[in-house]
Structures are given as structure tokens and as C-alpha cells.
Amino acid sequence: MVRYHDDKEFILAPYLADGHWTLFIIAVKVRQVYILDSLFKKGKKNPSRYLLTSVIQSALLSIKPTFDMVNCIQQAETWECGYILLQSMFDFVNVYQKQFPRMWNDTKVATDEDIEKTLKELMPILFDGLSIP
Questions:
Q1: Most-buried pick from 19, 50, 106, 127 (CB within 10 A)?
Q2: Which pTM value belongs to this model?
């Protein structure tokens, strides 16, 4: 897989398992995989609990990546993960990739207002990109 993406600095891999979205950011050139999981509280996160970790290890066998759990915004309930994932991807692509990974160290709980703000900001961009009126 690496030979097809060796010109890339980052690969974003949104991951859905058991109804929960998690974002994997693969930093190809530094051989590091960052995992942003909004569900499990600090101290209970472990890269080995994700099936995608072993898939990435197999696909990137030649570079032997290491995995790092990132301190990221947390869910208040059980339904916010998709919105938090979208916001994290948007923020990474448009703001944070030049500072990555040191910019993520915020474990606040996402509020309903945060989710509403995400929807208001990102839906017009998404619809415009897909040419949906």
C-alpha cells in the first residue's frame, strides 16, 4: 500500500465499527498512525482494541508504523461520533495539518451547540462540493 501513497504526507481513514466512528490519521513519512476516538475516556484507550490497527499494520508492514492515541474532543452521549469525526477531518485538512500532531490536546466534551455549529459550517460545503442544491 505504501508504494501507492509514498508521495502523500497523510492519509485520513474514517473507521466505523459497531456503530461508532473513529478517525485514523496515517502519517506515512514519519511512520506514525494517530487515532482520534471520541468515545472512550482518557486512560481506557488502546490502539490494539481496533480491528483497523491490525489491517494498517499488515498494509504498512514495510514501514512498521507506531500507533498513538490522540487527546481529542469527547462525546457526551452515544450519537455524536460522526459529527465529531467530520469536524476533526475538516479541521485537520483546513487548519491543523501544518501543526500536526501537536495541535490536538483537547478532551472537552462536545456540546449540542458544538454539533449544531459543525452542521451549519460543514453541510453547505459538503452540499456545494456534491452539487446538491
A1: 50
A2: 0.81
